[in-house]
Amino acid sequence: MPAGRRPLALGGPRSQLAQQSVFVVPRCRLKKIEESKEKIRREIRESKAKMFTKFTNILQQAVEALAPSLPLQEDFVFHWKAITHYYIDTSDDKAPVTDTNIPSHLDQMLEILVQEEHERESGETGPCMEYLLHHKILETLYTLGKADCPPGMKQQVLIFYTKLLGRIKQPLLPHINVHRPVQKLIRLCGEVLAAPTENEEIQFLCIVCAKLKQDPYLVNFFLESKSRATGVANPQKTEVAISENTVVPADISSEMEQAQPPEANTSTGLYNATCRAVVSPLDSRSDLSEHSTDLSTSLNTMTLSLQTATANSSDLRQSQDYNLVNSLINLSKSPDGRIVVKASEGLMLLVSLPEPAAAKCLTDNTSLCQLLTERLGKLYRALPQSIDPMDIESLESVNWGLDSYSHKEDATAFPGKRALISFLSWLDYCDQLIKEAHKLTAVALARAIRERFFVPVMEPQLLQTSEIGILTSISLLNRTIRQITSSAMLRELVFFLLGDQRQSETVGENKHQLRYRLIEHCDHLSDEISIMTLRMFEHLLQKPNEHIIYSMVLRNLEERNYIENKPACQEDKDIVENGQIAGAVDLEEDPIFTDLSPDNRLLGSSWLTASPPPTPDHTKSDGKTEVHKIVNSFLCLVPDEAKSSYYVEGTGYDTYLRDAHRQFRDCCGNCMRWDWPSIPKPLEKCNLETPFFEGHFLKVLFDRMGRILDQPYDVNLQVTSVLSKLSLFPHPHLHEYLLDPYINLAPNCRSLFSVIVRVVGDLMLRIQRIPDFTPKLLLVRKRLLGFEPDGPIIDHMTLLEGVIVLEEFCKELAAIAFVKFHAATTP
What confidence tens digit (pLDDT) does each residue in 657-669 have? Predict the structure, then answer.
């Protein structure tokens, strides 16, 4: 052993410490062991309590089955007293309601009420229902549900209310002791998103909405003043303290509870005291009888008549709350899609109610407008800028409520499809909501969408200069136009796009920037932007709104100053021999229209009349050109050497007649209520001295039509498609300007026919410089129709395709002219 070191004694401190660390358990560990033992004991007690509760329920049901049946009223009172005794006798405020007999007793009470109604005549109130009304059982249940004592009681109360309103056929909501607690319970719905009672809340709200849909006048009971909604007590009512021996009217106690700060609502002990104060007096038979007499008297004096409620609603219109709408709006923000759909359905039921007071309150005192517009803006901004415009166009129709898209299961998925479906789905909901809404509500909602979504969100995207951004925004606008069907929302969209001006346009006028920019895009350097914008206008023209066609075309034709007011000269008369163009076919005996049934005939207009026997004059005494001359003029515009349809079967003029008939019928259906004149405005009443300007839209279309031989095939198809849609409108001025080749145009004016004549003149000069023109033209037509496979590139391909489009367009215009004539002359 080294010097200076002493051996450690066996009984020294180090040895004692070692022994203690082996045999002594630390206190912290002992505490954990005790806690785990206590937890196990608690679980055992709870399991025993559950088993005992189930056993007592079974025993009670067996006793009820074997015991002689009591009168319904006594049985009803027994179950209600069993519920009230729970709050008097039970001190455990943490046990969930499912561990008690309360749900069973509530179910029995409901079954008794249903049975009582079935046993009585329709509309007669039985003693059990009288008991429920006079003793304010619904008020008491509301208080217990608000306190959620025991835990889960709110869910049971919601279920009871829902089943009571849904299964009882007699009208309950007119009773003050029903609609008042129902209104208070409505305020509790939607307070917390993703709450455990969310499903029961939406079921309850939807049954209330369904009842209001059946009897719309009842909605006046649910328009409450803001002073009551915020918990301010009525000064005429007496405030009393809640104690063990004091009867507290349920409405006052409920108002007092609602006026408490949120912190106070977290105290379970206070809730138990409140619950006992409400239910303990009901244990006494004498108190019940006396209370019943008092409530019966107050019921007669306090029940609001429908006339009074309706009259007062106009005075309180500016200070009313629509809590039913507010709760549905809150639930529509739930992360659960099923809850959102049900809340949306409830809102649609409420906006369709015919009560003006409710409609005014809904738009002025709720956040419905904000909900619609904010979500529209959020979903629109979430769309990726790189989304392909063709994907937007080709997406199948989207309906709200069916927004169940799975990216993994979709074989045609593309980037941004999920976001696009979400936007279009919500847009469709807004459109359907406005379509079903009361007129006041529809106008307000549509105006809000224009002011808060169209202008601040969509307009900057439509006015941008990036070609990719322009293409995407116009594609979305086109899809939006196709989605909208409600008249109020369509009107606001039209005013947003075209403005509300009704006076004639002037050259260089730019009063509405967005309108002017969109028309400019029809003649954009990018063919894709031009085609997309023209397609957008084509869809817009098919919408049933008179301001569209008036703003774009008709306002510039009102004065007919495109006509030179002088008789036709002899030189014009010599063009036609005996009223028939050489080589033209007589179409008035076309068999395709002779077999039309009366149901398929169109509504006639007097601005087209039967063609008289051919005469040397092109116009009759009323100034209208004979239809066969118009038809033949368009058919003979393209010279024979530039025609190729003769050589291909199934491409004749008659193929356009059926399409023209269907399209004209649809157009007349849209225009039926527009009160258009049947004949042109007399020239003596027109201001022919005013310089004529066809308007920016027609100017762009005519300019594009003039370049048909030099433009891509797809552009030409879209330009001619828009012009044919304009030609279908049954307005006398528009028909005259676009489809009458024989009007005397004023100096420096052009019409559709004159533009085509210039194109044909240019074509005749260019044909001479193209060798083998006719064989090449025929080959191009067969390739376009798919009759010939693609082969070597043909010279002058753009011109050849333009000639084919020009020939087909002239046949289409001829068919439209004939269909409009036939519709006007069919009895």
Answer: 989 999 999 999 9
- 345 is written with which tokens? 């359905």
Tell me the pLDDT tens digit for each residue of 410-456: 667 888 899 999 999 999 999 999 999 999 999 999 999 999 999 99
**Collapsing DSSP states into helix, strand and coil, what is residue 321?**
strand
Q: Report phi then psi at 123, rounded to 5.
A: 90, -5
Q: Are 499 and 357 members of one domain?
A: no
Do 361 and 495 fall within a single domain?
no
> Closest Cα to residue 660, out of 487, 536, 816, 765?
816
Neighbours of 637 (CB within 10 A): 21
| Domain boundary residue, one of 556, 579, 600 | 556
Q: What is the CA radius of gyration of the chain?
A: 40
**pLDDT score recorded for residue 591:** 38
Alpha helices per DSSP H over 509-545: 513-521, 527-541
Report which listed range, 136-150, 218-232, 304-318, 623-637, is most confident: 136-150
Q: Is 270 exposed, middle or buried (0-12, 13-18, 19+ CB in 10 A)?
A: middle
Q: Under 8 Å CB-to-CB from 78, ≥6 apart: which residues?
A: 70
Note down the domain range covering 682: 623-825
Beta-ladder partners of 619: 625
- Asked whether 475 and 392 are in contact (CB, 8 A), the reply is yes
Contact indicator for 637, 810 with CB cutoff of 8 Å: yes
pLDDT at 65: 52
Burial bucket for residue 266 (CB in 10 Å: 0-12, 13-18, 19+): exposed
Shared domain check, 418 and 526? yes
Residue for token digits 């002899």?
A: 570
Say if 580 falls within a structural domain.
no
Helical pair 513-521 and 467-483, crossing angle rounded to 10 deg: 110
Q: Which two tokens stand for residue 422?
A: 């979400």
- Structural domain total, the chain: 5
- Residue 818 in domain: yes
pLDDT value of residue 69: 55
Q: How far apart are CA 417 and CA 411, in angstroms?
A: 12
In whole angstroms, what is the distance from residue 326 CA to residue 65 CA? Answer: 45
- In order of 557, 616, 736, the CA distances from 691 in angstroms are 11, 32, 18
Q: Are residues 149 and 215 in the same domain?
A: no
Percentage of the chain lying above the pLDDT 90 cut: 55
Look at residue 581 and tell me if it is in a domain.
no
Q: What is the pTM of this model?
A: 0.76
DSSP string, 181-240: HHHHHHHHTTSSTT-TTHHHHHHHHHHHHHHHHHSGGGGGGG-EEHHHHTTPPPTTSPP-
- HEC sequence for 28-42: HHHHHHHHHHHHHHH
* Cα 125–Cα 127–Cα 133 angle in degrees, nearest 5: 75
Give residues with Cβ within 8 angstroms of 293, minimum separation 6. none
Please tell me whether residues 514 and 633 are part of one structural domain: no
pLDDT of res. 8: 42
Indicate if 62 and 116 belong to the same structural domain: no
Is 13 domain-assigned?
A: no
Task: Give φ, ψ of 394 to 5 degrees.
Answer: -85, -5
Q: By C-alpha distance, which of 663, 636, 651 is closest to 628? A: 636
Same-domain pairing of 543 and 667:
no
Q: Would you say 351 and 363 are in contact if contact means Cβ atoms under 8 Å apart?
A: no
Q: Which among 22-36, 437-451, 680-694 has the top mean pLDDT? A: 437-451
At residue 624's C-alpha, the angle toward residues 618 and 625, to 5°, is 35
Query: Residues near 723 by Cβ (< 8 Å), separated by ≥ 6?
Result: 701, 705, 738, 752, 809
Contact 552, 498 (CB under 8 A): yes
Closest alpha carbon to 679 in 624, 631, 640: 624
